[in-house]
Amino acid sequence: MKHHRPFSHLFVLLFMMPLLFGCAMTRPVEPAPLQPVEIIVNESPINYKYVFINYPVTVIANAAPRFSDDLRSGHVVVPGDVITGRLIKEGFIKLYELNPNIIKETLIVNYGEVDLRSSGIRHTAEVAIQFISAESNTLICSCNAEDRSLHETESVRRAISKCLDALLTPGEGG
Question: Is this model's pTM higher than 0.90 or not?
Answer without folding.
Answer: no
